[in-house]
Amino acid sequence: MADLDLPGFRFHPTEEELLNFYLKKVVFGHKLHFDIIGFLNIYRHDPWELPGLAKIGEREWYFYVPRDRKQGPSGAGRPNRTTLNGFWKATGSDRTIRCLTDPKKILGLRKTLVFYNGRAPRGSKTDWVMNEYRLTPQNCSSSQEDIVLCKIYRKATSLKVLEQRAAMEEEEMEQRAAMEEEEMFKSSASSPQDSYMSVSLMESEINIFCKGVSNEEDQDQQHDHEQEQEQEQEQEQELIKEEHVEGVQEVILVNKEAETCAASMTKPSLTLVNDKFLPQLQLPGKISNNLDWMQDPFFTQIRSPWLDNWMTPTYANLLL
Q1: How confident is the model at residue 286 (pLDDT cuts 50, 70, 90)?
Q2: For the chain, which residues make up each domain, given as ranges?
Q3: Percent of all residues in the chain with a pLDDT value above 70, rounded to a whole number
Q4: Is the pLDDT of residue 224 over 50?
Q5: pLDDT at residue 201 above 90?
Q6: Alpha-carbon distances, residue 301 vs 8, 191, 285, 298, 307 (angstroms)
Q7: Which of 129, 208, 228, 261 has its CA 20 to 30 A from that of 191?
Q8: Please, which pLDDT band fits residue 39 given cuts at 50, 70 and 90?
Q9: Where is the NAC domain (predicted)?
Q10: Rounded to an integer, what distance in angstroms lies between the CA atom of residue 67 and that of residue 140?
Q11: Phi, psi torsion values for 131, nearest 5 degrees
């Protein structure tokens, strides 16, 4: 069928067609014109491997499966449906498939199974589903019942189911964590000496940590105090320097003022615009008894006898 590669062909038979045509012809040895469904022991594979092993199918995959029954008294002839990583578990009872044209005629039975990861009785449910079709004992012999037709498909999972699965997984994780805590507590309780040692070690570590913290705080405080002292000393030195500078400046000002005063005392009082000094007036000295100033040429021109009588030493002294 794969060699024909018919465009638009879809293999989607009804349950009546699967039982009354495909399975019945194979069970009774009739040869089909097209090799659409192949033989495969699906229990040797996990369900996610089966789509690649089917001859045809996009969402549904079909196989003829020989029934592998369990051996020994525990098996009691039941088919073995375990795989390498899980097992197929039946859900509900078998359903009878009747003919559409004749409802009283039973064509076969259908069993629905779900794949679980892990081993029974524990296992996690998956969304892989299998419908197993087989003929009734009235339609075939016991040896012919060992061949069944299986349809494998993946069930669409709703959001509600996904949320439920996530909640279940969280619960399982919490239970595992609680069990681990209980085991740890039991192991610690079984050895009180070890627990006492661990407690004492924890206390010693806490004490060492507290001491280290207190030492660090003391060191920080001491460092801050030293910094404050250094800052105070620097401020005092700066104040002393400022006072010294101010004193020196005052002394310089005083010296300048003294120099200016002395200069003003020594310099003549009359000055010109270009800082040129006028010559100091020369006054006559103390009039002597011999009246030297009377001998001045200018003064002799205006002398008179009457003035000579008055210019005696006595009157001259009075004039001075």
Answers
A1: very low
A2: 15-70+79-156
A3: 65
A4: yes
A5: no
A6: 167, 151, 22, 6, 12
A7: 208
A8: very high
A9: 5-155
A10: 15
A11: -105, 120
AA letter at 173 = M
Count CA atoms within 13 Å of residue 240 on its CB side.
Answer: 6
Strand pairing report for 60-66 and 95-98 = unpaired
Q: Is the pTM of this model over 0.90?
A: no
